[in-house]
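User: I'm putting together a small comparison set for a docking exercise, and I want a reference complex before I start. The sequence is below, and the ligand is alpha-D-glucopyranose. Could you produce the 3D structure with the ligand included, as structure tokens?
Assistant: Of course. I'll restate your input first, then give the structure tokens for the complex.
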Amino acid sequence: MNKENKKQISLTLEEKLKLLTGKDGWRTYGANGKLKEVFMLDGPNGLRMMTDDGQTKKATAMPNISIIANSWSKEAARLAGETIADDCIEKGADILLAPGVNMKRTPLCGRNFEYFSEDPYLAGTLAKEYIDGVQSKGIGTSLKHFCANNREYDRFSVSSEIEERALREIYLPAFEIALKANPWMVMCSYNRINGVYASENKYLLEDVLRGEFGFNDVIVSDWWAVHSQFRRVKAGVDIEMPFTDKSYDDLKTAYDKGLITDEEIDVCVERILKLIEKVENADKVKKVEKTTEERHQAAVQIAKESIVLLKNEDNVLPLNAEKSGRILISGTFANDPPMGGGGSALAETDFKQERLENLISEKLGDSAVVDITANTQFTGDGCNNYIGNAIEAAYSHDTVIVCVGTGKWIESEGKDRTDIKLPFVQEEAILKIAKVNPNVIVVVYAGGAIDMSAWIDKVKGVVFVGFAGEGVNEALSSILCGEVSPSGKLSETFPLSLDDTFVKNNVGDGFVDLYNDGLFIGYRYYDHENKEVLFPFGHGLSYAKFDYSNLKIEKTGDIEYEISYTVKNIGNISAKEVSQVYVKDECSFVVRPEKELKGYSKDFIKPGEEKQIKIKLCKRAFAYYSTILKDWHVENGIFEILVGSSSRDIKLKGKIEINLPEEMQFTR
Ligand code: GLC
């Protein structure tokens, strides 16, 4: 709709109010044909389009967001967005209700599979690329769930009780960074924040999101997240979804009572018309670029970037016919890998998985022997009938790959996990197989952290595949057989056990979830408590070996620095390495995390080659949020720059002294 059309459109009051309450479950109101109906669909892990009889239309099942985050690759995140956008264009969706950037405060949260990380910088920077990828194709996005929706239990009413610094430094920055990609919408969350529903939290929506972060487009409610029509309009929620007669009636009543004004309605209408205009303009340019097969290959490529090699004792990986001998694969996930967790983020594909044993056989060549234990069920109750088969077969093989994990029945929207161990029967299978075979490799298909303490010392290899989408077996076999070195790194800490986490049980204490862990979530928490972990944030092994050297820190402005360092591949296979830059405030007058991620780089390096990597650090890399100044503040003093291969494998350290002029410092 161009400027002229806009002037010509005159909407009746009823049409305006209906515009604010949507048309149905997925579309905006068309005002009797005057306006285009904007069609919005889930989800972050692939297009989820329901048919009238409640089935899900098939689409490309992508590596889940949590697994894309393990790639630490901005290119992979962007490619994921572009690929899902092709499915959207093909099926006529205008906006993808994604990505979610809620922080992983507890490994129990049921939706962690569709969130990026425990670190706001990693989550925000990858979400920005994902949004850019989707929107570069003329499909809009809806950044979600704003904000502090960090568990599923009681999500429709729980109040996330968070002090200001934790809100500003942990729970908001991923949104702030992702907003740089100009998502067409932001979705408010279900929960309360400090006692006020997100859908009517004027401070967070108007003052912070719009006023401070500069977001002036449509805020859409999460589905059924509105509790008061007039309070949500006053807070700036433009569209309530889904449409219900009651929503319209309540909105009309609020208007008739004078609780909302024509001006307030017109502000929402204007933003919705602007959104419709964006969609109409996009309609002129968007076109499907990747075939279904090319989209599948994109899913494979992203999975290859995201699979994490957690343990590789005695170089049990990569497999090869001579070293690995007769190989046995067991576990139903091998040929029925979960595509994701349950709920609105589950994409369904009709891609038929290549059998893992066949893929491995092909890659290892004729001399390889790769068997699979028939019907090894490590999931349902019937599994005990099959563990025996697996143990018996394990005797007569040299290497055993045990495929275990969770899936949509365990990890899902609408509920939290009650534990982070594998199902008992799966642990049992690993332990019994490991008793009879010295070369066990466990492949884990899950959306979040798994407590491996019961068996980690009994096996030689652990590969965290996650929910790696429809291309998982092609990607996994390629890594297991050494065609490509693993380069994924954990985007969330794997604790030794649930007891080691701050939020031991996630049932919560009634209506209020006290965030008294404050700033200290994820690696920030384990550092602060000086706790051992199973695998740290940023951990991931490679088939190559990397040497870090030559750290240089150059001051390029008042509070701008360029960090440079060299990474050399001293191994004998080309591989990608994710190097990470953390900042530590050595002497602070406020409590601060031990270190915080402020930069990273993923680089392909051939054997013997070295790469010089440059990372720019600006004010926010050093600042904390001052609740006195109501702004970000950098204290003068010593800061340490730490460069590592993970948050707990620091290779290089350097110090800088920040000495800003008096007027930029607090008066004591
Ligand atoms: C769901 C989810 C949200 C999703 C929406 C539409 O309840 O919270 O992420 O986009 O409703 O399905």
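The two ends are 56 Å apart (CA to CA). The longest helix spans residues 262-283.
User: Thanks, that's exactly what I needed.
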